[in-house]
Amino acid sequence: GKTIAVLRVAVTVTAPCCRGCLIVTFRSNLPHCVSVLSACTQQSSRSTGSRLSLRAAESEKPFGNSISRYNGETERTERGGMPHRHAEEKFHLSEERSYVSTQYSLRPRREEIKAMDSKEENIVTTTRSASLKTSQAPATQTKDLEFGGVPGVLLIMLGLPACLCLLLLMCKQKEPSLLNFPPPLPAWQDLWETRVFGVYILWFLMQALFYLLPVGKVVEGMPLADGRRLKYRLNGFCALLLTSAVIGAAVFWGADLYYVYGHFLQFALAAAAFSLGLSVYLAVRAAGAPPCALAPSSSGNAIYDFFIGRELNPRIGTFDLKYFCELRPGLIGWVVVNLAMLLAEMRLQNRAAPSLAMTLVNSFQLLYVVDALWNEEALLTTMDITHDGFGFMLAFGDLVWVPFIYSFQAFYLVGHPNEVSWPMASLIIALKLCGYVIFRRANSQKNAFRKNPADPKLAHLKTIHTSTGKDLLVSGWWGFVRHPNYLGDLLMALAWSLPCGFGHALPYFYVAYFTVLLVHREARDERHCRRRYGLAWEQYCRRVPYRILPRVY
């Protein structure tokens, strides 16, 4: 009976090839069975030691007695004069033989193997079909479309270029009054110049060359859906310095930047045509992109995805198209356009030096661009990079709207001078600095917390823990309002427009547009954070009730 207990343990823990040996030898030769058992258990102990120990612990005494018997004691002595157990042991022996012969005969094993293979094939087929459905889900699932859905994005794509042209034409008028609306349209042949388009292409290629220079540190972006982190080279500020050197050398050698002012509308249309062509390329390219490369904002609708962008990070080799366009051609081009307007003002108004109003506008906006390029790494955590794809929205916004609408105050001052007193200038400078301090410190606090929440410098800040494992700041700048960086942005936008005076509403178009943009952006952030953080976000909203402007909104 103790022998059978040993066999039970051995049959359970040994490999299938060894179990067959145990059955044959048990029936024919018990002493030989003992030797086979010893060899099998030694062989299997290397891979199944933990299971053997567990079984041995469950029947510790029988196992020990069996070992003693194998060391020379006879079976009669082992039974110790206990005949009442003989029938029970016979029952266990027949039960064990039946169990083993049923489990380890060759024919049933073949059938079991076939059955297992059939099950595995079914599992693989099911897994593949489920994987296929999962991979197709992003393209077919229903999403809440932003910007008014397909009708809204169609209106935006048609309305933005028209709005741009009307604003520039009205600003060219001597009396840009609403009574003179709409402004007279130039001849169609005057709206397009191949030379202007060629200059714009050269500008774009020059910035691309500066982007590819192996200078500046390389950092990793936020994790993608598949866990990868893309690498980015931070050399935007270096590109600004190189551009300044090239423009300075060109002016020194006789290049006339007044050409930019004289063909400002043509440059805007050339940039618009280029951005449209880039958007078409991005849409065609994204048609073959794998599901893991698609942006979370993509919907599967061709028109909507053309606008919002289908692919999250379109790259040609290591050249990241979206990241490049966000900061280089348009943002640095904005500085060059402002410089051209400053020189045009001096020429048209016969000034030996630029006006105080033009100086304020150029200085304020240059500081904004320098700050963005100096803190280039902060762009990697924004919604533009992590959520929105690269389509018409960002292509037109980065390449057209930024350089030709953000420079609107300087363009306005060329044809409509405004004298600013020093007391008024002091107030405007104070407003600008106030907005900049709020903007920069809020963004710096957020970026530092994202990089290292355990930073001792941030230990005084209060947080709310979320189900995602991240924390929400509820003190410091982010306990003041939910979007203090937007508040700082709006104050700076107002400071850019005030030097133009109050003679017309045109210079304040940027403030109105930017307010609508940031309110809409805040609403998008709100929906995104509510879905992501759930109850923690609701608690944060109760702690910080105002969104952008304290006591107002």
What order do the helices and strands come in, and which of them pair?
Elements: H1 2-13, H2 16-28, H3 30-58, H4 60-70, H5 75-79, H6 86-104, H7 106-140, H8 149-172, H9 194-212, E1 218-220, E2 231-233, H10 236-252, H11 258-262, H12 264-286, H13 302-308, E3 315-316, E4 319-320, H14 321-327, H15 329-348, H16 356-374, H17 383-386, H18 392-405, H19 408-415, H20 422-451, E5 463-465, E6 471-473, H21 484-497, H22 509-533, H23 535-543
Antiparallel strand pairs: 1-2, 3-4, 5-6
Specify the oligomeric state. single chain
Physical arrangement of strands within the biggest beta sheet: 1-2
The main sheet comes to: 2 strands, antiparallel
How much is the average pLDDT? 78
By DSSP (H or I, 4+ residues per run), the number of helices equals: 23
Order of helices and strands: HHHHHHHHHEEHHHHEEHHHHHHHEEHHH
Could you say how many structural domains there are in total?
A: 3
Shape descriptor: globular
Structural class of the helix and strand makeup? mainly alpha
Radius of gyration: 38 Å
Strand content: under 5%
Indicate the low-confidence ranges by residue numbers. 1-34, 36-41, 43-116, 119-141
Q: How many beta-strand elements?
A: 6
Helix content: 55-70%
The end-to-end distance, rounded to whole angstroms, is 85 Å
